[in-house]
Write a structure and sequence with these properties.
2 copies of one chain form a homodimer. Chain A has 316 residues and is α/β, with parallel strands linked by helices. In chain A, 26% of the residues lie in helices and 23% in strands. In chain A, the strands form 2 sheets. Chain A has a 9-stranded mixed β-sheet. A 3-stranded antiparallel β-sheet of chain A has the order 8-9-10, with no helix packed on it. The N terminus of chain A is likely disordered. Chains A and B meet through helix 1 and helix 6 of A and helix 1 and helix 6 of B.
Chain lengths: 316, 316
């Protein structure tokens, strides 16, 4: 790990924001011992285990999902003294933009039980985030899930930093280390750091077009009165992340063999399913999310916003 | 669920012995509500959730793996008052061979993150178990893992009943419901019950030969001094359960990219790998187990032993 010089900000790399996602933390340990194995293009990195207490228990979180703890109302509430919320405050105090070791950008490494492949998650439409995502998509072609307009899911870690993306890799069971998942995570992170370094050097060239999958809403499995699932994801839908859902496509299968089908709400392009059957989302009432695949022209202002963030990143 | 009549024993069907294996418990709830959806061939079934407290937390166990709690020293030790051990005693008291609702055979339904497909696990070489496994293999062709001679892993639930098998299905992440896994579980259980019913009716015909994979030993990933894994399963080995391992085959991959290869200890038939990268076995120091694939002649005495067990199973 390289140290920041003077007041220049670093790049925060977080692994294990969820303690049962084991692949990125395993890489993190390796990078800490052998910094040269992570191409950082001269960027000062701060490599941090997101939720060490949850990681020690191999659980997603202890009391409250750490990656939903980063909203102001929660962070500022003195009555909130849960371990995960306190960890959120600690991360901001140490590595937030005004922290003791300030970071100007963050890459948050996650894994999923859904067959999402290697992809990016962006929260909202901050220009610097879109530029960073576009730069990574230009290098690796990773699909992008734009999470926005979802009042039931807020307080993501990224929101407390001026710029950042989630790198999300799957499918992999919780608690399992897999070489392929590690390799994809490393490639995604190296591409992200290369984009930031190019932005800082003034050499970043973004693709003309960004393909985004913007959040439309989520579907839950049908449930019984006691909350238990009455059906499961239909086998024809399982692992079909990033595939359009057409009116009448099988969605759920109940224990009697009855097929529940997708009913498209509107005409036009069919929505694209993501995060199908993610283990941790059952408790959030999400069996899958629906997105709209869109082509956006990459705007010059995005690159300028990212250049401004990158200019604050210290030289090693 | 059908009730036993008089003193005749039932068949115990256990789901969720591990609380984060969600597929069999989901089926169980369905069978309890709609008993006709489980073909039991007239056998009196006792459908039981193995570890309800662990299931409620979506954890494998609370304090101690319930499926390692069924050894006498532990069960008889008055100082052992952990919740899982107490649940083991409770299961024996209620549904053991001498329990308040006695059961003469048990089918224990499990899932795994390993790519084991639909298979059977048998502990030791009890003739009735071998007959039951042979009968199921004759119907569905399921591979059989014979776990024996492993002093580090003992106290399995099955051992407290006169006859039984584990039906093990994967790959599926912990905490995830998948239609395919449910379907395989149901097929396996129905075949097991059909074999027991045929044995009771005196119509059981066993195949002449049993293919078993008998336990040779287990391999752990290389670890650092602090116990953390220094390497992961090589991607060429991941999901290659039931495939023979030859001398020089890639086994592990460390974070530097170094490949650690399998070194066969003896000449002769190569061992066959099972339970590769099962999430719950990391803490047990098992990255995979090695077995010897063997063809056994099915002995007449096995069928007789099973017939004796089955004769005690009550009419519905």
């Amino acid at each position: 790990m390289q140290e920041r010089s003077g007041q220049a900000a670093g790049v925060l790399v977080v692994a294990g924001t969820h303690g049962n996602e084991r692949n990125a933390p395993w890489l993190l340990e390796h990078w800490q011992q052998r910094p040269e194995t992570l191409a950082s293009a001269g960027l000062p990195l701060h490599l941090v285990l997101g939720n060490p207490a949850a990681y020690a228990c191999n659980r997603r979180y202890l009391e409250r999902d750490l990656n939903r703890c980063f909203r102001e109302a929660l962070l500022q509430d003195p009555a909130e003294q849960g371990l995960d919320v306190r960890r959120a405050r600690e991360l901001i105090a140490s590595h937030g933009p005004k922290g003791s070791e300030p970071c100007g950008a963050v890459i948050d490494l996650h894994s999923t039980t859904s067959a999402m492949g290697n992809c990016l998650v962006v929260y909202g439409r901050r220009p610097a985030d879109l530029a960073l995502a576009a730069g990574i998509q230009g290098r690796l072609g990773l699909p992008i899930y734009l999470h926005e307009g979802d009042a039931s899911q807020t307080g993501f870690l990224l929101e407390q930093w001026p710029c950042g993306v989630v790198i999300e890799v799957g499918p992999v069971p919780q608690g399992v280390l897999q070489a392929r998942i590690c390799r994809q995570t490393q490639l995604g992170l190296e591409a992200a750091l290369a984009v930031l370094a190019a932005a800082r050097a003034g050499t970043l060239r973004l693709p003309p077009v960004l393909v985004v999958h913007s959040h439309l809403g989520s579907l839950d499995v049908p449930r019984r009165a006691d909350g238990s699932p009455r059906a499961c994801i239909h086998p024809a839908l399982q692992s079909r992340d990033w595939v359009p859902l057409h009116d009448g496509d099988p969605l759920f299968l109940d224990a009697d063999g009855t097929v529940l089908r997708f009913e498209a709400e509107q005409s036009g392009e069919p929505p694209v399913a993501v995060f199908i059957n993610e283990a941790a989302y059952g408790e959030k009432g999400i069996a899958l999310s629906l997105t709209r695949r869109q082509l956006w022209s990459v705007e010059e202002s995005w690159g300028q916003a990212l250049a401004q963030v990158a200019a604050g990143l210290g030289l090693s």
